[in-house]
Amino acid sequence: MITEKIILGIDPGTTIMGFGLIKVVGKKMEFIQMNELQLSKYDDHYLKLKHIFERTIELIDTHNPDEIAIEAPFYGKNVQSMLKLGRAQGVAMAAGLSRQIPITEYLPKKIKMAITGNGNASKEQVALMLKSLLNLKSLPKNLDATDGLAAAVCHFYNYGKIEGGISYSGWESFVKQNSSQTPKGGSKNSIEINIRKKK
Fold first, then answer.
1. Is 2 helix (H, G, I), strand (E, B) or coil?
2. pLDDT per residue over 139-153, tens digit each?
3. Cα separation, 81 vs 19, whole angstroms
4. N or C: which end of the chain has fewer CB within 10 A?
5. Which H or E element spans position 4?
């Protein structure tokens, strides 16, 4: 019996949120769509988070994905940017968890490695490889959409062997996996600690 499932990939961001959907039939993947949510026109950071949540819910209700793959924030020097990016990722995850959809996080290098074989590949190299793998006719102007699609494809390649990713099957799973990891004093959040363990 051939199994089918739909994977939603998300590249969270506070300027652009990229996303892509693939359908998995047996051991093959088929492209459904990719697009982006433009957030730069909103000045209010909290309004951006609201739109991220609502768009993610809309995608879930429209396409009924079986699983969600999301790119985890990379660790930069700008603390404010990291905080905003983490919030964007958090609301996208909350949308999926509210619908009881299993979520897996992947580090950017893990996604690049899965798609191109090179963890330091550029956005352009990832996009071109996706174009070849999924027989895409063209690529979007902004590559945030292909980054979201890459997360979904990475999840397809890592199905059943989640290394470098953190999986949550629902809200209770998320809380259970993170509540005991929080260090005393609360200086770091638990998700960050878990991701670093998986490098």
1. coil
2. 998 899 999 999 999
3. 20
4. N
5. strand 4-11
